[in-house]
Automatic annotation (TrEMBL):
Protein's name in the database: Uridylate-specific endoribonuclease
Compartments reported by the entry: Secreted
Domain SMB intervals: 20-64, 65-104, 106-151
Reactions this protein catalyses: ribonucleotidyl-uridine-RNA = a 5'-end dephospho-uridine-RNA + a 3'-end 2',3'-cyclophospho-ribonucleotide-RNA
Family: Belongs to the ENDOU family.
Length: 413
């Protein structure tokens, strides 16, 4: 059979377009494109949707930390770019320069460098002392909270929020049992025979913002590809939750901080922004509206056979009560109340693993909502470094999804 030249050309073009949709060629570090079947940015490893040539096209054969700082552990990578790689001696060779504050001469940005230690080799600096010595990078104010009222920094806000967290639960009202240290978390061995949480005072969960927060947890289907469109009742539950949250000292302080930075001119505008970035439904499967920032971060999801997100302590506690999760142990922790842990989620007769997940136990939902929102607003797609709870260094990672919504947010422990 003979084919016309025009038909042959059309077939070639069709094959080429299909191939490019599944390739990172020309797409490295691009934003999320839901029309494509796979992605080519630093978040794709977190969400498990990288194109097959992501490493070879975008990571220099996966031997570079370029665009990978703070990534989740992936045993398929020959070297790693997260806070644990130094401990396990498996960092990529350019980890220090790409992820720990080192910059090439002439680079004049605080992107991913906020709160870094002083390095005389850097042409400009991104820590709390740079204003004193007049050597801040030009984008320090916008990325690291250096502007605004005197003394008003991300660290001072976080300290204030932690002190003002009236709905936080601690002391004898929360009994925590971290148990076994996992020296080899890739082995997925359950080394902890008891639940992570021994006791949470139920009376505390009936006060403040907790009842409206708990009402949201059953509004989502964890599996991507299944629609999560809110019903009218679920929309009311979101509004009720936001009503309670915006009636707390935590959110008052957060709004004052962002107002003084010039981000918002009214409380109603700030509330609309919070609802939009956290509760707007979007797709992680390229099809139905199956996800949102709130679902991913606070409830957790299952995508490509793995648990993703799931960074809220109360959701984990309630899943433990229902027998839905099995805590395996921890790999690191930090004050106040932070742990990096491993667990198995059982759902619909199948088991799914979360190799590493961080939570800050006892913190109220408004505290997490506030600190994650500020870090995303000021420093999206980057690691924000600050101090809290009496000067203890903290790190929060946020990711952008679909251009302006939160893809994920968590304390990097």
């Amino acid at each position: 059979m003979l084919f016309s030249p025009i038909l042959v050309l059309c077939l070639v073009l069709h094959i080429g377009i299909a191939a490019s949709a599944d390739s990172c060629s020309g797409r490295c570090n691009s934003g999320v494109d839901s029309s494509k079947s796979c992605q080519c940015n630093s978040a794709c490893e977190t969400y498990g949707d990288c194109c097959t040539d992501y490493q070879s096209e975008c990571l220099g054969g996966a031997y570079s930390c370029n665009s990978r700082c703070g990534e989740s552990y992936n045993s398929g990578n020959p070297c790693h770019c997260n806070d644990l790689c130094s401990q396990y001696s498996n960092c990529c060779t350019d980890y220090d320069s790409q992820c720990s504050g080192g910059v090439d001469p002439g680079v004049d940005s605080c992107s991913s460098r906020c709160g870094e230690s002083y390095n005389a080799a850097n042409p400009c600096h991104c820590n709390d002392q740079c204003t004193q010595y007049s050597n801040c990078c030009t984008d320090y104010d916008s990325l690291c909270s250096g502007g605004g009222n005197p003394g008003e920094t991300l660290s001072s806000l976080a300290e204030a929020l932690w002190e003002a967290d009236d709905n936080g639960i601690g002391g004898s009202d929360l009994v925590f049992n971290r148990q076994a240290y996992l020296s080899n978390y890739a082995a997925r061995n359950d080394l902890s025979s008891q639940p992570l949480f021994t006791y949470v005072n139920p009376a505390k969960l009936d006060t403040g913002t907790w009842p409206t927060f708990r009402a949201l947890l059953d509004n989502y289907i964890r599996f991507t590809g299944s629609s999560d469109t809110n019903t009218a009742n679920e929309e009311r539950e979101i509004e009720n939750f936001l009503d309670e949250v915006f009636n707390t000292r935590v959110m008052d302080l957060t709004y004052d901080y962002l107002f003084n930075k010039g981000y918002f001119s009214s409380l109603s505008a700030f509330r609309s922004y919070v609802k939009d970035i956290w509760f707007t439904s979007y797709t992680r499967s390229g099809g139905v509206l199956d996800s949102s920032a709130f679902e991913h971060t606070f409830v957790g999801e299952v995508k490509n056979g793995k648990v993703s997100g799931y960074h809220n302590w109360l959701a984990f506690y309630e899943d433990e009560l229902e027998g839905n999760v099995n805590y395996y142990g921890y790999t690191s922790d930090n004050e106040p109340n932070q742990i990096l842990m491993q667990f198995r989620l059982d759902d619909n007769g199948s088991s799914y693993y979360k190799e590493l997940a961080s939570i800050i136990y006892g913190a109220s939902p408004e505290f997490e909502l506030a600190i994650f929102t500020v870090c995303f607003k000021e420093n999206p797609n980057a690691l924000s470094t600050f101090t809290m709870a009496g000067g203890i260094t903290q790190k929060v990672q946020t990711w952008d999804y679909n251009g302006g919504y939160i893809g994920s947010a968590y304390f990097s422990v």
